[in-house]
Amino acid sequence: MTRVGRSVTMADEIRATKTRIEAKLSAASATVLAELRELHRIHRPPRNQRPRCGARTRSGAPCRAPAWWPSGLAAPRNGRCRMHGGLSTGPRTAAGKARCAGNLPHQEHE
Fold first, then answer.
1. pLDDT tens profile 10-63
2. Contacts 24+ apart (CB under 8 A), 76-79
3. 56 pairs with which residues across the strands?
4. What is the helix (H) or strand (E) element at residue 82, kind and residue range?
Protein backbone atom coordinates (compact mmCIF):
# COMPACT_ATOMS: atom_id res chain seq x y z
CA MET A 1 0.00 0.00 0.00
CA THR A 2 2.79 2.42 0.80
CA ARG A 3 4.40 1.67 -2.51
CA VAL A 4 1.33 2.82 -4.44
CA GLY A 5 1.11 5.96 -2.33
CA ARG A 6 4.76 6.69 -3.00
CA SER A 7 4.42 6.33 -6.77
CA VAL A 8 1.45 8.66 -6.81
CA THR A 9 3.42 11.19 -4.81
CA MET A 10 6.39 10.81 -7.12
CA ALA A 11 4.18 11.30 -10.20
CA ASP A 12 2.71 14.44 -8.64
CA GLU A 13 6.20 15.65 -7.85
CA ILE A 14 7.31 15.07 -11.44
CA ARG A 15 4.27 16.94 -12.77
CA ALA A 16 4.93 19.85 -10.41
CA THR A 17 8.59 20.00 -11.43
CA LYS A 18 7.65 19.93 -15.10
CA THR A 19 5.17 22.76 -14.57
CA ARG A 20 7.80 24.86 -12.73
CA ILE A 21 10.35 24.31 -15.50
CA GLU A 22 7.83 25.20 -18.22
CA ALA A 23 6.88 28.37 -16.35
CA LYS A 24 10.53 29.40 -16.02
CA LEU A 25 11.18 28.71 -19.70
CA SER A 26 8.17 30.69 -20.89
CA ALA A 27 9.10 33.60 -18.59
CA ALA A 28 12.70 33.52 -19.85
CA SER A 29 11.68 33.40 -23.50
CA ALA A 30 9.21 36.24 -22.95
CA THR A 31 11.99 38.28 -21.32
CA VAL A 32 14.37 37.59 -24.18
CA LEU A 33 11.74 38.55 -26.76
CA ALA A 34 10.97 41.77 -24.90
CA GLU A 35 14.68 42.65 -24.79
CA LEU A 36 15.04 41.97 -28.52
CA ARG A 37 12.04 44.17 -29.28
CA GLU A 38 13.49 46.94 -27.12
CA LEU A 39 16.88 46.69 -28.86
CA HIS A 40 15.12 46.82 -32.21
CA ARG A 41 13.33 50.00 -31.16
CA ILE A 42 16.47 51.61 -29.77
CA HIS A 43 18.71 51.04 -32.78
CA ARG A 44 16.19 51.60 -35.56
CA PRO A 45 14.76 55.12 -35.78
CA PRO A 46 11.38 55.83 -37.40
CA ARG A 47 11.33 55.92 -41.21
CA ASN A 48 11.16 59.69 -41.44
CA GLN A 49 14.29 60.04 -39.27
CA ARG A 50 16.45 57.45 -41.01
CA PRO A 51 19.45 58.62 -43.03
CA ARG A 52 18.91 59.52 -46.66
CA CYS A 53 20.67 58.03 -49.67
CA GLY A 54 22.36 61.24 -50.82
CA ALA A 55 23.53 59.86 -54.19
CA ARG A 56 23.72 62.51 -56.91
CA THR A 57 20.83 62.19 -59.31
CA ARG A 58 20.89 63.19 -62.98
CA SER A 59 19.55 66.61 -62.02
CA GLY A 60 22.49 67.09 -59.66
CA ALA A 61 20.39 67.07 -56.49
CA PRO A 62 20.97 64.44 -53.78
CA CYS A 63 18.62 61.48 -53.67
CA ARG A 64 16.05 61.88 -50.91
CA ALA A 65 15.08 58.20 -50.56
CA PRO A 66 15.84 56.52 -47.23
CA ALA A 67 18.91 54.30 -47.03
CA TRP A 68 18.18 50.59 -47.38
CA TRP A 69 17.91 49.19 -43.85
CA PRO A 70 17.09 45.48 -43.64
CA SER A 71 15.24 44.40 -40.52
CA GLY A 72 17.43 42.94 -37.81
CA LEU A 73 20.46 45.12 -38.53
CA ALA A 74 21.55 47.97 -36.27
CA ALA A 75 22.57 50.24 -39.18
CA PRO A 76 21.84 50.70 -42.88
CA ARG A 77 23.57 48.18 -45.13
CA ASN A 78 25.64 50.56 -47.24
CA GLY A 79 23.98 53.95 -46.79
CA ARG A 80 22.34 53.97 -50.22
CA CYS A 81 18.72 53.44 -51.23
CA ARG A 82 17.46 50.46 -53.19
CA MET A 83 17.98 52.31 -56.48
CA HIS A 84 21.53 53.53 -55.77
CA GLY A 85 22.89 50.53 -53.85
CA GLY A 86 25.24 49.59 -56.65
CA LEU A 87 25.48 46.52 -58.81
CA SER A 88 27.49 43.42 -58.15
CA THR A 89 31.10 43.68 -59.27
CA GLY A 90 31.12 40.00 -60.17
CA PRO A 91 32.97 37.03 -58.74
CA ARG A 92 36.44 37.60 -57.32
CA THR A 93 37.65 34.08 -56.56
CA ALA A 94 38.52 31.35 -59.03
CA ALA A 95 35.72 29.18 -57.64
CA GLY A 96 33.17 31.97 -58.12
CA LYS A 97 34.35 32.61 -61.69
CA ALA A 98 34.09 28.89 -62.49
CA ARG A 99 30.58 28.77 -61.03
CA CYS A 100 29.51 31.71 -63.21
CA ALA A 101 31.10 30.20 -66.30
CA GLY A 102 29.19 26.96 -65.65
CA ASN A 103 25.90 28.86 -65.60
CA LEU A 104 26.42 30.45 -69.00
CA PRO A 105 24.55 28.87 -71.91
CA HIS A 106 26.82 26.98 -74.27
CA GLN A 107 26.75 28.55 -77.71
CA GLU A 108 28.14 26.93 -80.80
CA HIS A 109 30.19 29.24 -82.97
CA GLU A 110 29.97 28.84 -86.71
1. 778 878 887 887 777 777 777 877 777 666 555 667 778 888 999 999 999 999
2. 76/50, 76/51, 79/51, 79/53, 79/54
3. 62
4. none
